Amino acid sequence: MKHNPKDVLSKKELSILLKLNTPIKIQNFLDTLPINHEKHGETYMSPRRVLRERKALCLEGSMLAALALWIHGNEPLILDLKSYNGDDHTVALYKCKGYFGAISKTNHCTLRFRDPVYKTVRELALSYFHEYFDTKTGEKILRSFSIPFNLKKFGTDWIIREDEMHDIAQALDKSPHKPFCPNKNLKYLRKADKMELKAGKIIEWKKSNKRT
User: Fold this and answer.
1) Which domain does 77 fall in, by range?
2) What is the CA radius of gyration of the chain?
3) Whole-model pTM?
4) Is 207 inside any structural domain?
5) Residue 212 maps to a domain
6) DSSP assigned state of 133
7) DSSP 110-121
8) Per-residue confidence at 3, pLDDT binned at 50, 70, 90?
9) Any domain includes 210
10) Is 211 within the bounds of a domain?
11) Strand extents, DSSP E, 64-193
């Protein structure tokens, strides 16, 4: 088993990722990729497939971001934000001068990049809580966040796999999670108001985009 991510990448793939040597550059690159609307069924694409097909969902984007961070000497960490209705979100974690930030692939206007201003992973996760609501009912739906999930445990095969990586998605889902708030406080959560609902429906990539 190879342990250096550079060893499994093609020259073209490596040349792309070597240029992404800061979290901002990684985020800027992810922003150029259309959202994967999964028109032909559910996907969990590897970084190789994302680079080839030029589209990504949140987990796919976070894994590509984690790979870029790994290549540049950081741990390949991702964070799962779990909702009660299964509409989860995943981001890649990075640390700068002792503070956490996040790289995010999303189709919405609020669940995006986070600057490195958070002292703890919990602080960072909480920054997504308020705007994470059901756009039909306005209910705030986040319930827990994972401890940092290190992709190193899967070696380097996940970087170039051609199958759907259900095993990694399931392992992330089953990994230890911490609650955002006690159940007794859930009844005090205010629903998103009309302006928030309007903003929450703004999307970047529509299904009519040819490349998705």
Assistant:
1) 5-200
2) 17
3) 0.94
4) no
5) no
6) B
7) SS--EEEEESSH
8) confident
9) no
10) no
11) 77-83, 89-96, 99-103, 114-118, 142-146, 149-150, 177-179
